[in-house]
Predict the structure of Ribose-phosphate pyrophosphokinase.
Amino acid sequence: MTYCDSKLKLFTCNSNPKLAQQIADYIGIPLGDAITKSFSDGEIQTNLHESVRGCDVYVVQSTCAPVNDNLMELLVMVDALKRASAKSINVVIPYYGYARQDRKARSRDPITAKLVANLIETAGAHRVITMDLHATQIQGFFDIPVDHLLGVPILAQYFRSKQMENVVVVSPDHGGVVRARKLADFLNAPLAIIDKRRPEPNVSEVMNIIGDIKGKTAIIIDDIIDTAGTIVLGANALVEAGVKEVYAACTHPVLSGPAMQRIEDSPFKEVVVTDTIPVTHPNPSSKIRTLSVAPLMGEAIIRVHEEISISKLFEIE
């Protein structure tokens, strides 16, 4: 389809151009003509090669690794659009970096998630569209509208299509119970929780399973898989406790350090992720299955542009 509104424009920086192109294809508009590059000393420059005067502009940029470069690219792009007289600047951040630094866990800690929100607003953004924030209260760090999309419906649709039987959804810790319960509701499955405790500093975690999981197919769900240490420990504990097979699901595949090898060596049958972050590892695990968020992001952009509700996007058929 072709979207017939010349005032809607979509641009991207360098973090996830493939996803940006898929979003543009879904909406039915060409991707904006712009180049963001770095000088030899690391300074970032953006060149817009088309007019945006009076347009509603959407910029797709995940602030994933290299986090600081991608964040700076976004800020420079927003500043360029503001100075080029764009009517509105909407930043689409599929993965919001620094989201895990959302509070003072210790004395003299920074709250970097708030600092990033301040930078985005100061650069000139009018709206943020993001997905599965690590801490939902980050929405309140902004004084501009934030549309917070959910990855659970996409993951639930995939697991529904597999028509698995005797499923139990598992939260890897107490903090992820709300997310796990949403997936369990979509799949009409029971919920279990992995209870992790450190009896004393530098002593291995003791893991207990809360819920009936023996003989069932377990799906561990989290928002982020980073080094994969926690989720693989959880999988091992589930297998030892008698699950039939175990899957993992997450929205944001950070997959840093030893994550890929840990997943490959783990008892997971499949690790289902989305493309909010591109999986660029030279030797990706054969167990990883990637789902696209482009239709969800594209539909959200259309609905925001046409000023209609986006709450329908939190449901599945």
